[in-house]
Design goal:
The structure is a homodimer of 453-residue chains. By secondary structure, chain A is of the alpha/beta class. Helices cover 31% and strands 23% of the residues of chain A. Chain A has 11 helices and 25 strands. Chain A has a 6-stranded mixed beta sheet. A 4-stranded parallel beta sheet of chain A has the order 13-12-11-17. In chain A, helix 1 packs parallel to helix 7 and helix 4 crosses helix 11. Chain A is elongated, with a radius of gyration of 23 Å.
Chain lengths: 453, 453
């Protein structure tokens, strides 16, 4: 199937950008190879729901193969891309060189710890299903360990949870954690009271949701406080140790620390040889190609592009989706210049990508959200309904939409969380069980250290 | 809450036996402590559905705490029990000694490798959610690696999958794997054809489902063969190496080997000091207590008890459920002799546990099953409907029932599998990714070794 006759498009990454590029190209006379290191697309906007036990991983993911299986000209390869040779026009992956005529790099971003990579083990971020499961495990284990400690008569001080970063992910995490403590977990423990748990949200800037208009930032703050979240602004994290987080002289015990503060683009961006910005994003041309290589495109969170007003396009799904479709159209248009040579096609008149911002939505908790559609700003229940509608609508797969809707309806009316499952290591301190993973056991020692402080 | 006033019942294990004992005792004037090393109850009869990507872990589990939260006299402790002191009447767990007046041990069973524990890493069994996710990962990864190999032009020989053990679990796994290859995965790959996959079911005895009447065993064999499963009977596994399984002189390459052959009772049985049988099951008295300790009961898969005809009661959920309720009733009755001393209560006239077998059901695949209700034997679609009805009905939690029903309806009409998610290690050979766990990377080397043979 590695058809040598047709124009071959290789797409690296099956996030929103890559998948939309593939779908838009699938009816063109091209052969497409989609390469991803995972076998599934993750609906990242709902990852925080997996981290907070509201949804199961299978409900916000879909196998890349099955999303694309109806397109016979699309081949999916589960492999980690290790580099490129732009002169030979090949992608290096799985000890192979995979040839392309057009290349779309949509490898996304991960979290950044601002030079403190050692914090990652102590304060996990939220970019993958594995991250979400690790966060879920830590949060639920912290309560189990606290209960055990209180059962043994060793005191029942309330737990501290700290979320670092007041952007949309941090706000979602903090808001949802606060709700869980006050509702879903409230009646399940006998020796501790989860309602007494402190949820701290630490933001370096002056406002939570700093990218939003100030009235919505303020509304988000109020909605968070109503949920019981203790918001600390203008505070920079200077140190993270097991069970302790420091902001300058201020030290805080924390059973669980979650990181939602920084974003770093995939290291693949730097392997393209094009200029990158401080976050590792590739500085693309107006048509999303890289300088000197009109056949190589970078889209989504990995691309750095400014809009007309000079503002950097945000790393959100709508931007990636539109960029994917734009690049697909560009390649299709070049293909239509069928008689022309490859060189002539690539030098066809350039068009620039324009992003039309339809609005932004951030959720805070049950029936709490903020939304901006142009000049219209909404908060609270109506914003939450809009958020719910948009997220269920765009979730991949009809089956997933139905399942997620049921889960939400169930959670909404019962306050229950359906996926409160601790999997992986059960190697708690004092247990004689198997040591089934270092990451797990380290986490437990940290949590245990924190809980026992 | 470790109330010293009320009669204290400690229940070890929150499987079918332990949960039913707790529920039946919850309205009695006792204090109950349920100890389990997991935070969730697992609906084991549907574990094979998680292993074969049909259901998500969250759909067949429920937090033990939330199942029991409405009973204020029940305390749940997530901890691994390490031993007992029957003279002091304490359970040792989490570096504590937990006192009891009555003890119910329902710690269940795991898989046994007949003295070949080194096979476990090569041929995982299916007893926990973690096992199911590991099997799912291996099966899906095998196809991804085969596709990658074929994409690179290194051949596309069909894969071999081997399931060891022709009991209900082995039959379910083999049948469902065969269906997945022929339907759910059939159109997702471009370089390999999953329909060509060989599924081998290896059984040591003469028949699959040996515990069933012969006509149903024969029907199960036919239904398996119709699904394309290659059944090998009277074959004993003598060796398992990475990617190769041997039955005497016969060697077979295998991309994935699954173990459904032996059962070993929890090692906690032996720590009770009572006689155990070869599988480690505790030989209990007729009232499920252990000799010399009328206040200590063993139930479920951990108990060895014969029925009137001298046949060992099978290790299935209905037996465990009825045993749990029986023991709860026994304790309640002893409580009613309120004025009497503890010694008098324990020596109250004994009643014996009787198991009334309502029937057995084993599923083989989509619309394929066998069922026995006394003298009535059914096969095929009707047996499958009965199986479906019983399993959805007994699934814990209304929400889970709805979700599982939707998943099944979806799978039935579309042949899709909703939870085809590879999580955990993505450390494939030739990848530069993180080494995120030894178990994962070993598995991949084995699979890779097998696929590249």
């Amino acid at each position: 199937m590695n058809g040598k006759t047709a124009h071959r498009v290789v797409i690296v990454g099956a996030g929103f950008g890559g998948l939309n590029a593939a779908e838009s190209l699938a009816r063109a006379p091209v052969g497409i190879t989609v390469i991803d290191r995972k076998n599934h697309h993750t609906f990242q906007p709902l990852l925080y729901q997996v981290a907070t036990a509201g949804l199961s991983p299978g409900e916000i993911t879909a196998p890349i193969r099955s999303i694309l299986s109806r397109h016979k000209n699309v081949e999916v390869l589960m492999a980690e891309v290790t580099g490129f040779d732009l002169e030979k026009r090949v992608v290096k992956a799985a000890e192979q060189e995979i040839s392309y005529d057009s290349l779309i790099v949509a490898a996304g971003a991960s979290h950044a710890y601002f030079g403190h990579d050692e914090w990652e083990a102590l304060a996990p971020g939220l970019k993958t299903i594995e991250d979400a499961l690790e966060i879920r495990r830590r949060v639920l284990l912290a309560f189990e360990l606290a209960e055990r400690r209180a059962f043994a008569g060793e005191g029942s001080d309330p737990l501290n949870f700290v979320v670092v970063g007041g952007g949309p992910t941090g706000v979602e995490l903090a808001g949802t954690l606060a709700e869980i403590c006050r509702h879903a977990l409230a009646h399940d423990f006998r020796s501790i009271d989860p309602r007494r748990t402190h949820i701290h949200l630490i933001e370096g800037g002056q406002h939570v949701l700093p990218a939003y208009p100030e009235d919505l930032s303020r509304s988000a703050l109020e909605q968070l406080q109503r949920l019981g979240v203790e918001v600390v602004t203008s505070a920079l994290v200077t140190q993270i140790e097991p069970g302790v987080i420091s902001m300058g002289a201020r030290r805080m015990n924390a059973a669980v620390i979650l990181w939602a503060a920084g974003v770093a683009a995939s290291p693949l961006g730097q392997k393209l040889g094009a200029p990158v910005d401080r976050a590792g994003r590739v500085q693309v041309e107006a048509d999303l190609s890289i300088p000197g290589h009109p056949e190589v495109f970078v889209i989504g969170d990995l691309a750095a592009l400014k809009d007309e007003s000079g503002k950097m396009l945000p790393g959100v799904a709508p931007v990636a989706i539109l960029e994917g479709r734009f690049v697909a159209k560009l390649i299709r248009r070049r293909m239509e210049l069928a008689g022309a040579s490859a060189a002539e096609r690539e030098s066809a008149p350039r068009v620039a990508f324009h992003y039309f911002d339809k609005g932004s939505l951030a959720t805070i908790g049950r029936a709490a959200a903020v939304a901006q559609f142009g000049k219209i700003h909404i908060s609270g229940f109506m914003a939450w309904l809009a958020w719910l509608f948009v997220h269920i609508l765009f979730l991949i797969g009809f089956r997933n939409r139905v399942l997620v809707f049921i889960q939400w309806a169930w959670s909404y009316f019962t306050y229950e969380r359906g996926a409160r499952l601790i999997t992986g290591s059960t190697n708690l301190p004092g247990w004689s069980g198997l040591h089934s993973g270092t990451r797990g056991s380290e986490a437990e020692q940290e949590i245990s250290a924190a809980v026992h402080k």
